[in-house]
Structures are given as C-alpha cells and as structure tokens.
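Work Package 3 committed the consortium to producing structural models of liganded targets before the mid-term review. Because experimental data for this complex are still outstanding, the team generated a predictive model from sequence and the ligand definition alone, so that downstream docking and mutagenesis planning could proceed in parallel. The input record is reproduced below exactly as it was submitted to the modelling pipeline, together with the SMILES string for nicotinamide-adenine-dinucleotide.
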Amino acid sequence: MSQPAHHTVHVNLGSRSYDVLVGDGVLQNLGQQMVTRGLPQRVAVFTNKEVGAKHLKPVMKSLAAAGLKAVAFEMPATEKAGKSMKAAEKACRDMVKAGFDRKTTVVALGGGVIGDAAGFVAAIYQRGVPFVQLPTTVLSMVDSSVGGKTGVNLIPEAKNIIGAFHQPRLVIADSKTLRTLPKREWNSGFAEIIKHAAIRDAKMFEEIEKVAKRKGDLAALIARNVAIKASVVEADEHETSGLRALLNFGHTIGHGIEAAAGYGKLLHGEAISLGLVAAARLSVRNSGLEAAGAERIRDMLARFDLPVRLPKWLRTAEIVKHLMHDKKFDAGKIRFVLLRDLGDAFVSQQITLDQIKEEIEELRR
Ligand SMILES: NC(=O)c1ccc[n+]([C@@H]2O[C@H](COP(=O)([O-])OP(=O)(O)OC[C@H]3O[C@@H](n4cnc5c(N)ncnc54)[C@H](O)[C@@H]3O)[C@@H](O)[C@H]2O)c1
Ligand SMILES: [Zn+2]
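The resulting structure, written out as tokens with the ligand in place, is given here.
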C-alpha cells in the first residue's frame, strides 16, 4: 500500500533524538514506522472514550498489519481524572495484568491530557519503556507531544507537579484527526500557534491567516510549529538555560487567569489568548514592540474567536493571587517574556507587579 506523503521534523537530542511525522492520513503508517525504528513489538495503546471511538480503529489496524501485538486501554478524559496518580496507577495495573514486560511500547492516542498521563506511565513502568505520541488536538500536535515533559497533577495542590522528562521515540501527528475536534478546542490550540509566530516566526502570521480562511496547508503549518518547538527544546531540553522559557510568552498572566477562572472554565488557549494580549502590550510599553505588532497578535487571536478582553467576573486581585503563587518576584520584579519585535522574544527581569496589575486592568477595555 502506498503511504501518504508527510513532513518529517527531526528533534535532535543526541541519543534521545526522534522524528515527528506530520501529514493528512499519516497514522496509517504507524505500525510500519514503529517496526522500522525497532520499537518493542508488544504495544499498550492508551486513549480515552471520545478519541478512541473516533480514531482507535485505524491505529489498531495499522499496528496489526505490521505484525505488532497491541492491546488498547482507556484512561479518563478529563484533566482532573485523567492526569492523576490514580489514573497512572490504574494504567500500570492494567499493563501488569495484561502481562506487559520491559519490552513494551506505550502509545498515547489523544490530546495533551492523554499524552502527558500515558507518557508518565511510559516513564515509570518498569523504570521506563519506549513511548510513541499520536496527538489528536492542535495543542498536543504543536506543543505537548514534543519535548518530553510528561506528568500528572496533584489536585488541589498544583498542576503538573509530578512528572518526568521522557522523550518519545516517535510522534505521528495526523492532521486528518483534527476534523473531529470540537471547534472550541481547535481555536484554543491556535493560541499556541500564534504564540510561536510571535516569539520566533513573524512570517508565519500569513500562513495562519490562510488556514483561518480554510485555504492554507494545515499539515505544513503544524510541521512549521513543531520545528519551532523542537528547536527550542533542542537548545534547552531540561529547561536549565532559560531558552525554553521563551515558550512561556503569554503564560505568566495567562496561567493566572486560567487558575483564577477555576480550571475547566476557560480552555488553556483561551486563558493564554488573554495572556498574549497583555504580554504584547507590555512589550509595546517596555521593549520596543511597535503598536502594530501587538495589534497583529490581538487581531489574529480574535480571528479564532479567542477572548481578547477580560470577562468582568474575573477579578484582578484573584488573578494576581494565582500568578504570585507560581511565580517568584525578586525585589518586586519578575522574569517575564517580552518581544522586541514580532518573532524576537527575550526574557526580561524588569517587569514589576504593578505593571502586571495595570495591564490586567487594561485587558478589560
Ligand atoms: N507536556 C507538555 O509539554 C505540555 C504542553 C502544553 C500543554 N500540556 C498539557 O496538555 C493538556 C491539554 O491538552 P489538550 O488541549 O490537547 O486537551 P485534551 O487532551 O483535554 O483534549 C481536549 C478534548 O478534546 C477531545 N479530543 C481530543 N482529540 C480529539 C479529536 N481528534 N476529535 C474529537 N475530540 C478530541 C479530548 O477527549 C478532550 O475532551 C493539559 O493537561 C496541559 O497541561 C502539556
Ligand atoms: Zn500553553
């Protein structure tokens, strides 16, 4: 059978290097790609009910056709139940019961929740087994499936507080799976794409615009975003040099908003959209970004129906409380990602809490 054409993005991490394959229908290559890469032939596939109902069949078919022995398991779909120690423990028990030993490949089919949770299971099962990501949301394709951060939450203490760096051995992002993604999830994922354009690739705004008009090449756009994420991860795999922090553009205020709203009220990308608008405006005031640059970011977010104005019910004090909870202020100042220009981000040490409060107020206008 001929294979659908795809883009390949190589993530260069020495002995932990891997490829990300992006294309329409590329999931049908899964089994054969795993065999080519010499991955263990016994496969534990984790998905949730929703995604499984829509996309599991072709995955199992491709694995079987390549001679791989796969068993599918379900994990809970929600952030709360899915990304939990309880779900990870249950997954490990399921694998023991089904007789999986060290020579196992764990495959995650789904969005970031499944990817993070099943990735964590892969990191801890028998002290670590090979892992393959099959992201099915925009966010998980351009962000969470690449970079090796896996983990679960401790609710109510903190999100993503338990985890491990465990790079996948292969990522296959099939843009065809996005056709079943709810509109709100689709839009939310574009907040991260717009973030990538803002920090690294100003020209990409034109491609995003085309996709917004349903005229663009979606797989090419996803591959371009994966390449950006990959280049940042390659330069700072374990988040030690500070470069990986550039990916947090829009996330300081965005996370404050996400937490203040109560997790689940706003989707991640919706909260980040507001954080991006605020961070762009702070860049105009502090680091030379032209007002037109900030407008470009805001207009593009609005094109995907993402919020660009703070809802009245979200109180500034509440947002600031949550923001202080996960960020350190040193002598009243905080590390904050700003833009000098579209496509040119840096970490500033100069932003004060007062400036952040003003900018949150400004988000209401
Ligand atoms: N590891 C990382 O580096 C990293 C980076 C960013 C975000 N994350 C994590 O990612 C998670 C969010 O991921 P997400 O935005 O993909 O959300 P998600 O995994 O919750 O998926 C969103 C919803 O869409 C459904 N869905 C997924 N694919 C579908 C499809 N093709 N068709 C129909 N429905 C589909 C899911 O069942 C779910 O209900 C958060 O937990 C966040 O912390 C991790
Ligand atoms: Zn994000």
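Reviewers should note the following from the model. Residues 192, 251, 268, 272 surround zinc ion (ligand 2) (CB under 6 Å). These observations will guide the Year 2 experiments.
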